[in-house]
Each structure stands twice: as structure tokens, then as C-alpha cells.
Structures
1.
Amino acid sequence: MLVLGRLTAGAVARSRCFLARLRSKRSVRTSVYAGFAVLLLTFASSSLVIALLAAIRTLLAITTGDAAMTTIAYFAGCAASLLFFGRLSNRFGRRLMAALAALLVLAVLMLLSQLESLAALYIARLLQGFASGLTASAVIAWIVESIPAVYAKSSAVSAAIVGGGPSIGFAVGALLTGIWVESLKMPLQWLILSLGTAAVLTLPAIFLSAETAHCRPIPLKDLLICAGRHRSAGDRSYGKNGSAHLGTDGGRFVRNSNGKKLSGQLSRNDACSRG
């Protein structure tokens, strides 16, 4: 038993060293790519329902009011995510929130592939809003924090991703849906399966990426957005590049140690209002 215990401990240690080396190789660059993939998938899946809303109304025989309620469900999920879970990545890390967003996208796609009731549509839109809120806060923060180590002109790239990332995702989803259904005449389930496969493939990429947040215990009462407004300057967390991360509250801006603004701010309502 003693020999078996030593062999097991040695195997665990070797696997940890292997994973550490694997993560160190291009892990920061992988963070940018994996984060942007989650961003595109989240907002593309959200626009999927918007592009197919007419067909869904016919399929489920729902009224205009029922269709409008799906937008309210999306906004409620997005607002709840930003209000109550926007700063969870400061406690548990950006990668965990990115993985959660990818899993939510996968759950939404599974619901849409077997859509048979209005209740299922409401749940799907609620989960889409929740995933959009996580992406607009934690995932975009993860991308912005990883960019300075990859790109020289980090401020321009950060501003482009923060300002245009959700719009690109919505546009890609709507365009892809239109081409798939109208031009290629292919079953919609195949498109959903393709997006679901992409969501699954992002999970190992997230696992192999670098963590940029300095995970630290945060009192539960401070996890709300409004609770972090009056923190002192000494409570800021500084990254390796000297940037101060002033919370992940759905809006995002980064300043370096000299106070220079590095990237623009994404409004908390920006991701929700586009759904």
C-alpha cells in the first residue's frame, strides 16, 4: 500500500507539472482566443433566436405579446447576472466564469434543438441573458487583461473588443443563421449542433488558458455591483502589467499605475439592450 501510495503521489505530481508546462506555453494568447470564442458564441446564440423569431412564432403558435416576453426574459437574466454575479470572477477567477458562460450556451442550444413549448423558450432566453451578463463582465475583462501580453497596441485592441465584441457576435449569429437557413437550405438542427460542438471545444481551451484575476475572498455582501462603489484605492488589484482592475461590474475599464486609461468601458446595459 505504501508503494502504491508513493506511485500515485508521483503520478499526480508529474501530471501537475505537465499541466503547468502546458499552461505556460502560449497560455496568455490562448486566453485571448478562448475568451473571444466564448464572446462570439454567447452573442451569436442570442441572435439566433431573434433571427428565427418569426419561424418560432409559427412553430409554437404564440402571440406577439408572448414573443415580447422572451425579450423581457433575456433582459431579466442579463440584469440579474450583472447585478449579482458580475464580480464573482474576482473571487473565483475569470476562467471559471468563462466556462460557466460556455456551459450556459450549450444548455440553451440543447433547449432550442428540442423546442416544443413557450416555457422552454422563456427558459432558453433567460439563460441566454444570464450568459450574456457573464460574458459582458467576466469574459471581456479576461480578454482585456490578457491583451497587453499579446499585442503591442493593447489599448486600441481592448477598446475594439470592449466596444464591438457583442455587436460582432450578434452580427455573426444573424448572418450565419440567414445563410444557413435561406441560402444553404440546411436543417437548423445542424447549425445548433455546430454551435454546440464549438461551445464544447472551447472548454479545454479555457482550461489551458492563463488566469488573470487575483482570486481573493470577497464578503458576500460585496459581490453586488453597488457594494464595490466606495472601496478605497488600496483595495484595487494590480496585474502583472501594472494595470489596476477596478472591479468587474459589467462595465470595464483598465488604468495603468500612472492613471492612464487603457481601454473603454462597456455599459452594463449594452449587452442586455441588444438582446
2.
Amino acid sequence: MNDQSLNDFLGDLKEENFSINRQEIREISEFILGISYVDLLIGSPKISTKEKELFINLVKRRSKGEPLAYLIEKKGFWNLDLFVNSSVLVPRPETETIIEDVLDSFGHGHQRVLDLGTGTGAIALSLKSERSKWEIFASDISKKAIEVAIKNTKLNKLDVKFFQGNWLNAINYETIDLLISNPPYIQEADPCLQADGILFEPKSALVSKNKGLHDLFMIIDAALFNLKEGGSIYLEHSPSQYNEVKKRLEKNHFRKIKSLRDLNGDRRITKAVK
């Protein structure tokens, strides 16, 4: 195969009937050629033999369900572009519900914030991008996830401190103002684990014991000792777990328990005050 115009190549590719949409084709084009969508539109870019081989490989992988973010090593979240690979979950727009409510609820004054199970660093970095005076820490049990999060800190030029460890054992602070976590909360036998994309994501970041509640309960119990009096906790969970999460918070004497609905109207986030 010789160099040819991208448009001609995409025309040939279309005849192969890969199960991939136009938006994904565009993003793969931008990734491989290293140019913007505007340049794709106004220019007549050429694609080399090596680039065509890579393009076809990525399209085949996407057609088998691998997340686009893993293929192009990027995912937008809040106002940031984040580096992503298969060591971490792909950030979901539903999680932005946490960012919105936290920013609405807390001003620019100093806060000490802890993000547990940070993955890409999406929550911690998004908050830091909006609240420069906040002191933000984040942890993850996965060394590879911490490496991704640190890379995202450098890419976005933000100051967040990352630690490796299991939940609150990673950081020995007793004066946290705000604790946030999007932990594993899917049941081990949940059919959604076989869904498009999820099958390729790290199971350890998705699945939890005790009907998906094990890690949520661990965090709630430990938060009692790490949050300062009057501090707040935000937890992401399955909508079906809201009642159990609420009961556990009440058992630990949290107050002002409130459910937040995500973009789909589901009870995805629960917040409370110590």
C-alpha cells in the first residue's frame, strides 16, 4: 500500500463494514495523524502505509469492544484532557456530578481534600483546576494507576499529591475536610461486566464483594476517623445501592445525607456530613 489521501483511505475502509461510528473514526484520525479536526476538514492530509496499518488495527480493536480511550490514549473529563490506558477505568461523565456539586457547595478558601481510588486522577485534578488554593491528595491501590495519575498531573500542570495504598491506609491524616471516592461497586456476577468496553477495563477497579458494597462500607467506616468534625463525604455507587449506603452512613452517625442524581436521573452519588 502506498501513501494516499485520508478521504480515499476512509472510503476504502467504509466498505469493510467495521462496527465503528464516524465520531470514533474522526478521533482515531486525529490521534494517528496528530492533527486537529479542523485540519482534517480544510486540508487534504495523506496517510502513510504504516499509519494505515495502525489505523486498521485500532479500528479492529474498537470493533471488538475495546474502549476508544484506550486506543487513542485520551479521554476528556470536566475541563481536562487525561491520558488513559488499560491500567485505569475510563472516566465517565456521570462522575462529573460530584465535581459540579462540590464546586457549588464549597468556595475558594482552603480545603484539605482526599480522593480515594483516584485512577486517572480525574476527580482530584478537576477540582484542583477550579480551586487552586485547595490542598488535594489522592490514593490508589494500583501502582500503575498512580503512574497514570502522576502523568496527568504533569500534562495538566496541576499540583496534586498522589499516594499508593488501600483506601485510607494510604494517607495518615485526621483533618480531611472533604473525602471523595468512586470505588469499585459492581457485584461479581453482574452481567454489565460483559458489556461493550467494560470487559476490557481492570476488574479490580470495578468489582467489590458483598453485593458490591464491601469497599463502600470500608470507606464509610474509616472516614469516621479521618474526616474532621463537619467534614463532608461524597460516594459514587450504583443507584440500587443508595438505601444500603444511606443506612451505613446513618449507622456511623453521619448527617445531612443527600442523594445526587446523575445525567440519566439516577441516584448515583450520596453525600453526607460528619
